[in-house]
């Protein structure tokens, strides 16, 4: 589906992504993990085509990603980015309709099929009753659903998500991930997600890729890769890793804080 061949990216003299190689299969989900500054978002931006690698290449099927025109890329790859919604006074439906731009020529209006796709996505994301609501009137969870609806209406083969659950409450997090998982299973959608929550990544992702200082230090299924020793190496914290009682996926428990009472000072 997509092949990443020894890609590197530099900002000034700093190498933020260093020789990463990875193959993405159709219909799988991959989590990109690592501490802040490890190169996760930069790698995702190269996969999206927003950034071009300084070294190496990315191939989408048999085409070099850097050679594809933006609209051709957008028919294959969508990016979930809530911040792109902004505070413009568009309605939910108008914002989602904008996701059909890869299929429209200049000044062309939506076709009957475009409208059908938008209607289906509104229904699947539980936004049908919010179609005429202004974006500025939505909660954070609702805005994130609009963002994913706008991405899915592109009918992509690959969906890229950059920390999609940040700032969302638990119900909104699982609602968003459930929509993604449904599309993965029903449509063969390939999912690539940058995420900090290791427990969610372990439950959600078929494979995980750990980055540290721009390099890949571990890649494989969560059961193969996630361990207390790896977490301590990558994040510098001590944890306990246990299997999930239903799935067997590794789940991380933090060690309790040390019982060091604060010293009382005389006033």
Could you please describe the fold and organization of this structure?
This protein has 267 residues and is an alpha/beta fold. It has a domain at 77-155. 31% of the residues lie in helices and 26% in strands. The protein is built from 9 helices and 12 strands. The strands form 3 sheets. A 6-stranded mixed sheet has the order 6-7-8-3-9-10, with helices on both faces. The model has no long low-confidence stretch (mean pLDDT 91).
Keywords:
ABC_transporter-like_ATP-bd, 9 helices, nucleotide-binding, alpha/beta, 267 residues
Brief synopsis:
Keywords: ATP-binding, Nucleotide-binding, Translocase, Transport. With 267 residues, this protein is an alpha/beta fold.
Which stretches are low in confidence, meaning pLDDT under 50 for 5 or more residues running?
none
What would the principal axes of the Cα set say about the shape? globular
**What's the average pLDDT?**
91
Distance between the termini: 67 Å
Pfam families: ABC_tran (PF00005)
InterPro entries: AAA+_ATPase, ABC_transporter-like_ATP-bd, ABC_transporter-like_CS, P-loop_NTPase
Keywords: ATP-binding, Nucleotide-binding, Translocase, Transport
Domain ABC transporter: 2-238
């Amino acid at each position: 589906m997509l092949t990443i061949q020894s890609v590197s990216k530099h900002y000034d003299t700093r190498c933020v992504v260093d020789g990463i190689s990875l193959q993405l299969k159709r219909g799988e989900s991959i989590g990109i993990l690592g501490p802040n500054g490890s190169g996760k978002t930069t790698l995702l931006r190269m996969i999206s085509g927003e950034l071009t690698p300084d070294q190496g290449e990315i191939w989408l099927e048999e085409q070099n990603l850097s050679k594809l025109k933006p609209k051709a890329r957008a028919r294959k790859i969508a990016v979930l980015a809530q911040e792109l919604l902004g505070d413009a006074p568009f309605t939910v439906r108008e914002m989602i309709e904008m996701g059909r731009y890869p299929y429209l020529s200049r000044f062309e209006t939506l076709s009957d099929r475009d409208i059908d796709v938008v209607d289906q996505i509104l229904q699947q994301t539980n936004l049908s009753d919010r179609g005429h609501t202004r974006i500025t009137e939505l909660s954070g969870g609702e805005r994130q659903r609009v963002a994913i609806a706008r991405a899915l209406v592109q009918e992509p083969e690959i969906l890229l998500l950059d920390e999609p659950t940040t700032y969302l409450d638990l119900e909104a997090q699982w609602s968003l991930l459930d929509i993604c998982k449904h599309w993965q299973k029903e449509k063969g959608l390939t999912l690539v997600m940058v995420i900090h929550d290791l427990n969610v990544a372990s439950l959600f992702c078929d494979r995980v890729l750990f980055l540290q200082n721009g390099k890949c230090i571990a890649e494989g299924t969560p059961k193969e890769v996630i361990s207390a020793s790896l977490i301590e190496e990558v994040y510098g914290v001590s944890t306990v890793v246990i299997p999930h009682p239903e799935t067997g996926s590794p789940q991380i428990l933090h060690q309790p804080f040390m019982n060091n009472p604060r010293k009382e000072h005389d006033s």
